[in-house]
Amino acid sequence: MSLHYQRFVEAVMAQLKPGVEIGQAIKAAAPVDADILEIGPGARALFTKREFPKLKISDYCSTEELRQSLVTAHGVEDIPPDMVETVDYVCADGDLLAHVPQGQAFDLIFSSHNIEHQPNLILHLQSVAQLLRPDGVAAFVVPDKRCTFDVFRQLTSTSDLLLAFAERRQIPSAKQLFDSTFQSAQMPTSPIREIGRDDALALGDIQDALARFQARLSGADTAFADLHHSVFTPQSFQILVMELYLLQLCSLLPVLVTGSIGNSFVSMLVTVPPPQDAVALQALHEEVKARLLKSYKRMSFERG
After folding, report:
1. Does 225 map to a domain?
2. Which pLDDT does position 210 carry in this prediction?
3. Residue 94: φ, ψ to 5°
């Protein structure tokens, strides 16, 4: 069954009521016979193959390695068989096209709290765009930096993404290591929950941040670090996607970006192939530029 993104978006919005989690609204709107790819769920997959027979799972490691990580991290010895969905595509570098069989396409690509971990986000978005069917939709649940431990960090810019793409980056940069070490809000309780102005927050250790920065610059540290490579708000994410489209680096455009829901927002993207006709292409670019300017104004002048 082909999923039409407009009907899907409308169905999700109809589900988003007080008390309904973002993921559950997306799941409820998805046809059970749709071709679905869920990226990086770990042990918390939203979709299950029992409910969605055509579901595929991509993660950074194999099913057995995920199960073993639960044992290591939490000391769990008896893991229920259905706690971890079977991983179909092992993809640790974000380049889904290199790991998904040629010809496979999806009606829905779902990713929750995943894109901020991508070292090369442009490459990842390009893969998503090419794996989507023409009427398909990519639904991303993304942490809103204003409500998470990223609250003190600077927003990721398009030039940040361009640099990572040009470098074919697979590990965090020295800047990202410094920012995530020093500017991440330190909390006495788990940073997973939504945080606010009145919470007891602290900065990290600036000397430790400098040491990590220098080690990465000198080449003494070349290890992958699992951190937030990118930091977003709803408006800043819209801006990034639209600018990549205008630069012809990705064919995705947002059809919906919500405000904060808990500590996250939802962005739904579709592929918009550039028109072959020069006049039509210019008109489309002017429309995107107008939306882009509106997002810049909202991000720059809105208070609260």
Report:
1. no
2. 98
3. 85, -10
Q: How many distinct structural domains can be found in the chain?
A: 2
Q: How much helix, strand and coil, in percent to the nearest 5, is found in the chain?
A: 40, 15, 45
Same domain, 10 and 130: yes
pLDDT in tens, 39-78: 999 888 999 999 999 999 999 999 988 888 877 766 666 6
Residues 90 and 71: their CA atoms lie apart, in Å, by 20
Same domain, 18 and 84: yes
* Segment 270-286, tens digit of pLDDT: 999 999 999 999 999 99
The pLDDT score that the predictor gives to residue 20 is 82
- Residues whose CB falls within 8 Å of the CB of residue 138, separated by 6 or more in sequence, listed in order: 108, 109, 110, 111, 128, 129, 132, 252, 268, 269, 270
pLDDT at residue 1 greater than cutoff 80:
no
Collect all residues with Cβ–Cβ distance below 8 Å to 100 and sequence separation of at least 6: 37, 56, 58, 89, 91, 131
27: number of Cβ within 10 Å: 20
Structure confidence at residue 69 (pLDDT):
81
Beta bridge partners of 111: 39, 140
Q: Do residues 49 and 32 make contact, with C-beta atoms less than 8 angstroms apart?
A: no
Q: Which of 194, 218, 242 is a domain's end point? A: 218
Domain span at 115: 5-146+231-301
